[in-house]
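Re: your question from the hallway

Yes, I did run it. Sequences:
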Amino acid sequence: MSIQSRAKSKNISHGNREKRSMMFWGWMLIAPTLIGLLILNIIPVIQTLIMSFQNVSTFGESTWVFFDNYKRLFEDPKFWLSLKNTLLYGIIQVPITVALSTLAAVLLNQKIKGVEVYRVIYFLPMIAAPAAVAMVWRWMYSSDYGLINSFLKFLGFSGNIEWLYNPQVVIWSLIIVGIWSNVGYNMILLLSGLQEIPKSYYEAADLDGAGTVQQFFKITLPLLTPQLFFVLVTSIISAFQVFDLIFVMFEATNPALSKVQSLVYQFYNETFILDDKGYGAAIVIILVVLIMIVTVIQLIGQKKWVNYD
Amino acid sequence: MFKEPTNKSKVFIHITLIIGAIAMITPFIWMILTSGKTQAESTMIPPQIFPENFQWENYKNVWGALPFIKFYWNTGVMIAGRVLFSTLFSAMAAFAVAKLEFPGKNIFFMLVLTQMMIPAQIFITPQYLLVQNMGLLNTTTALIIPGIVSAFGTFLLRQFFLQLPDDMMEAAKVDGASIGEIFFKIYLPLARSGLVSLGIFTALFAYKDLMWPLIANISQDKMSLSAGITTLQGQFTTNYPELMAGSVISIAPMVILYIIFQKQFIEGIASTGGK
Amino acid sequence: MKKENWKKIFSAFLLSLSLFLVGCNNGEETSKQAEITYSIWDPVQLPGMQAVAKVFNEQQDDVHVNVEVTPWEQYWTKLESSAKGGKMPDIFWMHSNEIAKYSEGQVLMDLSEVIETSDEIDFSLFPEELVELYTDGDEQLGIPKDYSTIGLWYNKDLFDQAGIDYPDETWTWDTLLDAAIELTDQEKGIYGFLAPLNREEGYHNFIYQNGGEVLSDDKKQSGFRNPATVEAVQWYVDLSIKYGVSPTAGEFSDNSDMSYFQAGRAAMSLFGSWMTAEIASNENSNEFADVAVLPAGEERASIFNGLANSISADTPHPEAAIEFLEFLSSEEGMILQGKEGGAIPALKGADVSFTEAYPQFNTEVFIEQMDYREIKPYSKYTVRWEYEENDDLIPVFFGDVTVEEVSEQLADNVERILETE
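Structure:
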């Protein structure tokens, strides 16, 4: 064997060793997360899917019922109401929240005093535990002693709105709290997007004599679309999962509960209160499919309006 | 827009922002004011804004009725456990995905992305059964388990590692350092801002998590704050001053931390979104 | 090898290890004794259960019983997980809502042999519906511990003030309504009767009194297809909605029925026999309250139910647990339980010990009503259809719709659950 070829083979074996060491470390480093994801997430997805086709027994063997849970679901008026409430909540809450947080972000991106104070205050609802938030809103919504009705009365309205009991109103009560809780978070995300827009764009626009409004639509909005898209996608996903606020604001005996309960609320109730885990699994599968569809539509639709430069 | 706004538009901007700020903060102020009222004061029509004498009694009663010290402790353990494990594990995995080449990497990263897109409710029943079979329901450990690894954290930190240059790795390899050493000694410290962001994000959402603590731990002395205060409603149905006192007690620690570290909080959260 | 086998081998190993350690331990006193846990959910009944355990612990040296209370909200979750983890309490209370699940899971000890061979237990002296309730095929999974019926409690002071005779066995629905109208004083905030959305201590009694039913006998159909059922529930709802002699559902969300009654703001209300201790514990209601049989409709009826004591199938101390169960079910144990006034002992003859605990009330009516008892409706998934029934009746109790308008939907929803059984 010539010296050259020996050197070559040494090189190869060196390369192999490096490859192997890379592989070893690669697998070592991902191992905890991989194992965790498998046990806590991937296998559970399969288990939930299986459960949705079963009558899940607490101790004994679960029996296969195939599509019975789904069939029952489609015949269950409560399911259709939950689905309707969930969609309604998402479709109304998300656009309003995104619009308001964009407005707040744009205003806070100006050269004015007190930006930090505003930022801290707007983000405050995000810091509070949802149970505490829901409790104080419940109190403010009280029809007799609540701050909101008193304020409406002060403004000259009748102020007798049953925010927590009137079936026509309850979904709006929930939407208002949802907006209030989420504006700050989205605003922060959008603000960081705004701060990345180069100043020179605006300077150039100034020279062209573009007004503030024009600049907003010609520069700010298009350049903000990546953040807007992210905010929109995540907001819809989390809106479709609304649970905490409903759970605390509306007690189980509230006659208007059916007009506000979401899919996740119904899932919680069936699975953990009524111990019907198979039926609960079917509900959650529907929810996942719903979220997937909406997300995919958004991913496809983004090409039309999101500006990645 | 970076030119100084005119005075007139400044006034307009401030008015708009102040209206927003009032809407944001009123519930908190109302919570604190109500928590100091007597029950009679809280049910006056029209409402009485300020309590005559601030009723510390309400706080004493609520504090005595619920094991808040235990709630704080359980929440603290839950946050510490989740933050510690998930940031460490995520950083490891993120580094591997960003800087190493090995078979299976892409499949793993696909798993991470898939997990991020699926709503958490789909995991929760099997997770519950798992924890139940391990005999860990009603323990502080149960609170930590679902947050021990984080697909989102892996995804987020990957972005951070991608921004760091590769040549440090090559240089260290020439010096004979193993990949493990390179990760812990060189790259991990450089990703500190990412770790802090992820830590804050994890802590905040652990603190706000309600459904998991609600189902996993049913005895009161093992509950987290957010689940614990939901039991207040059962006990003080219509005594709103005491309910509000309980709410104040439960949000105070996080709000104080937030006000002290507001910059880190806001920047941390900001860096978790977008792009 | 199956997981179970490993578990067995492992526990056998642990057991022998602990025996070995105990053997080395020069025989301390505690080591000879089997410690067993008796798990219950009702704090009101704790004194009674402790009294039984105390006497039992003193009578012999082999077994020591600890009584443990877990509130109802947590009791079943806890029992379920402990059953799965193989760490159930040795002996515990069982309820009609849950028995189906536990019998299916085969986590309860079959007691039929114990009952046959025991000198202490005479099974013919227990109410047969309860015995049947805790039977699965030829397995006996619990021994009835107590029973309950529902009584018409009233406030003597309010009746005296209004000059109306106290309720008695001559009363019918009409007498009840007339008296309730008379006794209602809106200015003082006093109601003649309390009609909350409550099944066992509420409208289910009236359904059976009207010849209706909650479930069909084969447990396949909802009783809400039966006009007699609908009529009875509507009559009950009208007490608050139409006649205003009861607080409305909204008002009940602020104050419970018991708080209305104890505050002297209600002249009459239905409460189960298990609430007697609660009424006696409040010095006002102890003074002014008394109890009568339920009024008659088309027929007489009172909802009746009872708990059982069950033993874990894999308790490490089966003999000790059986010994204690025998004592609980013996005449002596039953009387000890009854004397504390928590619940009516299930054993015939021992039940009077309960009424004797309350000389101030006419509690004999609870035993009297056993003549026309109606077992609390149950099926395999009781909790689930009860939820549907409750959910559909909420708007009815708020006066938004009538029973007739929801009955069809209610029946559909209940039957959808029954179908899965």
